[in-house]
Amino acid sequence: MLRQANSPFELYAKDHVELTMQTMKGRLMVALISLVREKGWNQKQTAEELGVSQPRVSNLMNGQVSKFAVDTLFEMLCKIGFAIDVSYRDHDEESPIKVEIKKAVV
User: What crossing angle do the helices spanning 54-61 and 43-50 adopt, rounded to 10°?
Assistant: First the structure.
């Protein structure tokens, strides 16, 4: 019987840690791609704004998740006007660590 996957990453992730990381990277990439499209940037403009090469932008736009680290994606978001806020709330047993991505106040 075939196993039903909730995420395409479930099909090849070796364990829950890899699944979590791949899912997070995929979601960050979707956000970045959406923001780039909203701005109407081509790959050359995107590369200039992000401070990366055009082939790197091509990797991003083609969803090549394995070619990116989470910190690289966070840095790209920061370069286009977002701030990453991580907070720890020891009293919250269900969700003690919270990560928020917000528009940066300039």
Answer: 110
In the three-class reduction of DSSP (H, G, I as helix; E, B as strand; rest coil), residue 100 is classed as: strand
pLDDT higher than threshold 60 for residue 9: no
Cα–Cα distance measured from residue 45 to residue 26, given in angstroms and rounded to the nearest whole number: 22
Cα 57-25-71 angle, rounded to 5 deg: 75
Q: Using CA atoms, how far apart are residues 25 and 19, in angstroms rounded to an integer?
A: 10
Q: What is the mean pLDDT of residues 40-52?
A: 97
Question: Which domains are delineated in the chain?
Answer: 8-80 (1.10.260.40)
List the structure tokens of 1: 């019987």
- Judged by DSSP in three states, 48 sits in helix
- The string of pLDDT tens digits covering residues 51-100 is 999 999 999 999 999 999 999 999 999 999 999 999 999 999 999 999 89
